[in-house]
Amino acid sequence: MELNSFNFAPFTYSQYSLSKKNIVALIVLFIHCLILFFVSDYQALLHILTSVLSVLFVSFILSILNKQKDWFSINLITEGTIIGFCVPTSYNPLVLFLLVGIAYFLIKGMFAGYGGNIISVVAFTVAFLYFSFPAHFPEIITNQMIKAQGNMLSTLHIKGLIKNDKAVTSMLNYFFSNLGIIIPEGYANLLASYTSTIPAFRYNIITLFFSALLLGFDFGERIISFTFIFVYGVLVYVFGMSQIDGSFFNGDVIAAFCTTGIFFYAFFVVGENCTVPNTFISKLVYGIILGLLTFFLAGIGGSPIGIAFAIIISNLITPVFLRIEEALQNRFLRKKYGTIA
């Protein structure tokens, strides 16, 4: 008897599975780790490994407490790796292991064990570490500091956060001279190798390239990520310098992006599973809200923690979006099918 094969058409997956997304994210993060290895930043690699081990350890403990056998998943490695990228390398590894473990235990235990499905695990852990030892995080660049130097680039130069990239800048200006484009000294360093104790803030151009490539293949939350970046960029450009010198449409968007870690957060943290709305309009509004909150909390740049706080607040609004989406869906079904729905 011949067996005929069949498929489940017209049903199909609307997006990639969570495990596949995690694998792809880990591949991109592994490339970042290779860069850290080649520049001999072994401290950053140690912190990333420490965060991963802490997350795995807490997951194992929770499985024992909850009498569950399945404690390991690739998502844990992804979360631990991203956490390691988002925390400063100035922490003692043992202290980092303890603090990450406590934060992970708290977020997974909140709301009857569903805290990680409401609030971003990465953002919560970073915020917890900041409140525990804020001195370990890079100094926040305030408006007063920027006002004293005139602009963000000059402030970063004075603080020693930008290396001398005159040779690279001169070469770029030579190539772009025919287009009438002049690149100020410092931007090349900001994009390629920004001096920060937080690994996620360092290689902005590489993060942007690979993340944009992944989003092109529908990995991640494209609508939220791009809306978030766009809204924050517009706000910085239009209103950024209004508190510094009273001018408008003069904000330094590139400096703001590179000194807040927006590319890494937008592509690796914002779209964390179950922490964002589902429909196009909801995601668009969510991205706008996140951009607004980031502008108020991170300012025009130089904030190592502002985006993490903005994500947490936005996550708390997500249940409202979900309730509205459910109500609209039920209303649509009742209209179409009557009282059966």
Give a brief outline of the structure.
It contains 15 helices and no strands. The protein is mostly helical.
Please name the defining characteristics of this protein.
65% helix; globular; mainly alpha; 341 residues
Question: How does this model look, in words?
Answer:
α1 (18-38) crosses α3. This protein has 341 residues and is an all-alpha fold. It is globular and about 60 Å long. 65% of the residues lie in helices and 0% in strands. The two termini are 44 Å apart. The model is unreliable at 8-12 (pLDDT under 50). The longest helix is centred in the last third of the chain and has 32 residues, at 306-337. It is built from 15 helices and no strands.
Distance between the termini: 44 Å
Major sheet summary line: none
Uncertain stretches of 5 or more adjacent residues: 8-12
**Secondary-structure element pattern, one letter each:** HHHHHHHHHHHHHHH
Strand content: under 5%
Structural class, by secondary structure, is mainly alpha
- Please state the CA-atom Rg, rounded to the nearest Å: 22 Å
Mean pLDDT: 84
Helical element count? 15
Q: Could you estimate the helical fraction of the residues in percent?
A: 55-70%
Number of E-state strands: 0
Shape descriptor: globular
Q: What's the arrangement of secondary structure elements?
A:
Layout: H1 18-38, H2 42-65, H3 74-86, H4 93-113, H5 121-132, H6 143-149, H7 152-158, H8 166-176, H9 187-193, H10 204-216, H11 222-239, H12 253-260, H13 262-268, H14 280-298, H15 306-337
Helix pairs in contact: 1-3, 2-3, 2-4, 3-5, 4-5, 5-15, 6-7, 10-13, 11-12, 11-13, 11-14, 14-15
